[in-house]
Amino acid sequence: MQAIADVNQRIARLLAHLNPSMNNLQTEGSSNFRQENCRAKGGSPGFKVAILGAAGGIGQPLAMLMKMNPLVSVLHLYDVINTPGVTADISHMDTGAVVRGFLGQQQLEVALTGMDLVIIPAGVPRKPGMTRDDLFNINAGIVRTLCEGISKCCPKAIVNLISNPVNSTVPIAAEVFKKAGTYDPRRLLGVTMLDVVRANTFVAEVLGLDPRDVDVPVVGGHAGVTILPLLSQVKPPCSFTQEETEYLTSRIQNGGTEVVEAKAGAGSATLSMAYAAVKFADACLRALRGDASVVQCAFVSSQVTELPFFASRVRLGRNGVEEIYPLGPLNEYERVGLEKAKKELGGSIEKGVSFVRK
To answer: Which of 282, 255, 67, 307 is nearest to 191 (CA)?
Structure first.
């Protein structure tokens, strides 16, 4: 009898470890040792990552790619619908990260507890004719709720915010964290990596280069004219005609609209966004590991301009943003673009701040 009791206790401890929400589950014999409660021995060393909005158009490919990242040891997938299916699917991948799924707001806190990095693609996508500001009224409330959970359950986590409009949702997140007394501006980063990915690709096409060999800094914000590629600072050094500069700037600024229109109502930029988000998340994880000289562009609390938030090149470290780089020398075209970007960006930031403070 004692041996049976010992087995029951071990099974109960295993189930509790696998799914904290099952702590009250009663076990009799080994009948509850089911497939969904098993995990491979010796999960990979690394970081704990949560994806909020994991069942969506961005969330699913993002979750798959993060499952492939060797720096991830535990991957929590949260959404208000469909997470059991996504979790089951991704958990079959033979990579080291242990995957757990969480469904509905009642499981948000357990999904977030103990996380090192939280990635937020949650919200509704853009449809044809919609601007990012059209998404504001829906996505603003979603971001506020999720950030309230973060402030309570993992206030020291690095937060990668993807939900649009980023120019407003990052200020929303900051205000939520301020209200909770947990705000650390170094740990809140708006993901503008897709603008950089597009810029690298489009510039490489014009130059006839491999996009992996091109680095274009993109500053400002993450919508329309607030997206400012600094083509005068492209690496490798090169020059563009006025026509090329205008073409590239316009295409980079309107890349999202290009995809929305091409999908004709079937969605927005989900796959390229997931790729960009994983590229940025990997940079954050490498920085958390202690790698030196991890530099990316991100929309962060900043003093680069008079605006409280601005996207520019930042150096990442174990605490998030360790250094924010100045814009560097701009040509006349970029100086004019910067003024246009700041004018629109200021209103978007204020919109986000007012949403929480009202």
So the answer is: 282
